[in-house]
Each structure stands twice: as structure tokens, then as C-alpha cells.
């Protein structure tokens, strides 16, 4: 080996050692400045409210401020891209809903494996959907809804806030599993959808409970089932859809934290440790429950696996439903 090559290898090793030491030093000092949550929804909505609760609680655990930046629109793509392009130092995190990282990549022109673009940090909350029907419909259970649809083919319309959203996919999956015919009606937002549901112009809809609660309490809408695997503390008063002759019909929405690819493992571990401490905070748990979500903190590996499994499951629904991709 020539002297020049020996010197070159020595220089490479020295550079790698320096970079490694720098990375360790940055991880040891983390966090030394304000963190950012990029939220792919407008301010004031359910995701924003939960994100701010989590940001405040996590900031206390980390000893640094966590600011929330709303970057809504574009089906969450602008917010996701902002995090993908951010430095991989753990200071910029995507506060994502499951639809942002599971469904939206399936609906893009070029399907993207989101886990090649983002690094899971941890799940924070989970929440099932409720299946609600217009009180003008003569049904009170999931079985009665299915029986009604079978006796009146094509009479059942499902509303949602837009094509390709979780509520839309859930209605398609429900019809597939139940063997019934119906139509999906896409609205530009949930407000008009709920108004038409209450008036009986549409018959059913999947949604989170908090957005429906006012109309449910007034008797305009009726909850016939909940989409979770098991009874949730927040939704314990409602029967499980999967127990009404639809075994396997179970899903939840969730919020999780993701960073850019390459965040140092030691930084991810610190963030995970802080999230884990939130799981024992009963007051924090109660505040989240008021927003209709259950505290569910997970490790990065669990979040990655959940993202993969749900991507495969919803991909099957999309293909079998013939939903046109953007």
C-alpha cells in the first residue's frame, strides 16, 4: 500500500470519527433549542387542538418549548415535504394523522413508501370512528342498517368530507364486508355533510365522535357502532361494529410523530422517553379524552409496523373499490 493511500485512509477515518463525535455531541445536548411540530391541518381543528396539547406537555418533559406550525391544504403533502426537507436533528417533527402517512401516499400519482421519507418517532393517540345514521332512518343497530340496505338495494348513501379520506374508505370497506349496495357522496367538508345527514338526504357516515356529538345529543343523528378492535374508554357506550356480523372490520385513526430520515437514534430515544412519561400523566390523558382521543404512546418500531400494516389494508380497499387515484 502506498504512502498516499495510507494517508488518504487515515484522513477518511479521522473525518468519520469527527462526524461521529459531532453527532454524539448533538444528541447529548438535545434539545438545546425550540422544537417545531408541523401540523398538516388548519388551526382550530381537532388535529390542531390535540397537537397543541401534546406540544405543551412534551415541552415540559423536554425542558424546551415546542411550537406548532399549521401547514394545511394539499392533502398534507406540503407539511410532509417541509419535514422531509428539514435537518435530520429532531427539532422539526411532523404531527401526522394516520391518513397523512397511510392513505395519502397511496392516492398520489406516484405511490410513495412514506417510511423511506420519514422516520417514526412514536404514536401519541388513537381514536376509533363511529358509524352514525340519520335519526330519520328506521335503524338502531349495525345489523338493522345492513338488513335495511339489503331490503332496499341502492337506497343507502354514505357521506364523507372528500374522496379518498378515511371516512370514504371506511364506507367502501363496510359495503364490501356487508355485501350491500350503496353510494358514496363526497362533500367539500364535514359541515354540509352532517347537515344533510341530519335532514335525511344522506343516510350514514363514518366520523370521529366529537364532530358529531352535538347532533347526536340533540337526537338528529344516531350512533350504531364504533370501529375499534376493543372497547375504548372514550367510546365504551357504543357496540363494536365487528361484533355485528362483520368480523375483522376494525380500524382507528391516530396521531403520531415523524421526523426526517436520519434523525440520530439517541435523539429518537430521548423523544420516546419523554413521550413515555406522558403516558403516566392522568391529567394529560383526561384532557385528550375531552377531545375524543385516547392516549396511546408507542415506540418507533410499533409505529413503523402499524404504518406498514395499515398501508397494505387500505391499499386493498382502494383497489377493490376502484377509487381513482390523483
Give a quick summary of the entry:
The chain has 326 residues and is α/β, with parallel strands linked by helices. It is 46% helix and 19% strand.
Q: Which geometry do the CA atoms define? A: globular
- Distance N terminus to C terminus? 57 Å
Helix coverage percent: 40-55%
Q: Tell me the total number of β-strands.
A: 11
**Strand-and-helix sequence, N→C?**
HEHEHEHEEHEHEHEHEEHHEH
Enumerate how many helices there are, as a single number. 11
Major beta sheet, strand line-up: 2-1-3-10-4-11
Percent of residues in beta strands: 15-25%
Mean pLDDT: 88
Gyration radius (Cα, Å) is 23 Å
Q: Helices and strands: which structural class?
A: alpha/beta
Main beta sheet: 6 strands, mixed
- Unreliably modeled segments: 14-21
Task: Describe the protein's topology.
Elements: H1 3-29, E1 35-39, H2 46-62, E2 66-70, H3 77-84, E3 92-97, H4 98-107, E4 118-128, E5 130-134, H5 142-151, E6 156-160, H6 166-178, E7 182-186, H7 190-199, E8 204-207, H8 209-217, E9 221-226, E10 252-260, H9 265-278, H10 282-290, E11 294-295, H11 300-321
Parallel strand pairs: 1-2, 1-3, 6-7, 6-8
Antiparallel strand pairs: 3-10, 4-10, 4-11, 5-8, 5-9
Helix pairs in contact: 2-9, 4-11, 6-11
Amino acid at each position: 500500500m502506498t504512502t498516499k493511500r495510507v494517508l488518504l485512509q487515515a484522513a477518511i477515518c479521522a473525518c468519520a470519527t469527527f462526524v461521529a463525535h459531532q453527532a454524539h455531541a448533538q444528541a447529548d445536548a438535545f434539545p438545546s433549542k425550540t422544537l417545531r411540530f408541523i401540523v398538516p391541518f388548519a388551526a382550530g381543528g381537532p388535529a390542531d387542538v390535540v397537537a397543541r396539547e401534546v406540544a405543551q406537555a412534551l415541552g415540559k418533559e423536554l425542558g424546551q418549548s415546542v411550537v406548532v406550525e399549521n401547514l394545511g391544504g394539499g392533502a398534507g403533502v406540503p407539511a410532509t415535504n417541509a419535514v422531509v426537507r428539514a435537518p435530520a436533528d429532531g427539532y422539526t417533527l411532523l404531527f401526522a394523522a394516520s391518513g397523512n402517512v397511510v392513505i395519502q401516499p397511496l392516492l398520489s400519482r406516484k405511490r410513495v413508501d412514506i417510511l423511506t421519507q420519514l422516520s417514526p418517532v412514536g404514536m401519541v393517540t388513537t381514536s376509533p370512528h363511529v358509524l352514525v345514521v340519520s335519526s330519520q332512518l328506521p335503524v338502531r343497530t349495525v345489523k338493522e342498517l345492513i338488513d335495511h340496505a339489503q331490503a332496499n338495494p341502492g337506497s343507502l348513501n354514505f357521506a364523507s368530507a372528500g374522496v379518498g379520506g378515511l371516512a370514504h374508505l371506511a364506507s367502501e370497506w363496510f359495503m364490501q364486508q356487508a355485501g350491500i349496495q350503496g353510494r358514496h357522496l363526497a362533500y367539500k367538508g364535514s359541515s354540509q355533510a352532517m347537515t344533510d345527514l341530519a335532514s335525511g338526504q344522506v343516510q350514514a357516515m363514518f366520523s370521529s365522535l366529537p364532530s358529531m356529538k352535538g347532533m347526536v345529543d340533540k337526537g338528529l343523528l344516531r350512533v350504531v357502532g364504533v370501529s375499534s378492535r376493543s372497547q375504548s374508554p372514550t367510546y365504551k357506550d357504543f357496540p363494536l361494529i365487528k361484533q355485528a356480523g362483520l368480523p375483522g372490520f376494525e380500524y382507528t385513526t391516530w396521531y403520531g410523530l415523524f421526523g426526517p430520515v436520519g434523525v440520530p437514534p439517541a435523539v429518537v430515544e430521548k423523544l420516546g422517553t419523554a413521550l413515555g412519561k406522558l403516558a403516566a400523566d392522568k391529567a394529560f390523558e383526561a384532557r385528550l379524552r375531552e377531545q375524543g382521543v385516547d392516549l396511546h404512546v408507542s415506540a418507533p418500531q410499533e409505529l413503523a409496523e402499524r404504518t406498514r400494516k395499515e398501508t397494505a389494508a387500505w391499499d386493498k380497499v382502494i383497489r377493490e373499490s376502484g377509487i381513482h387515484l390523483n
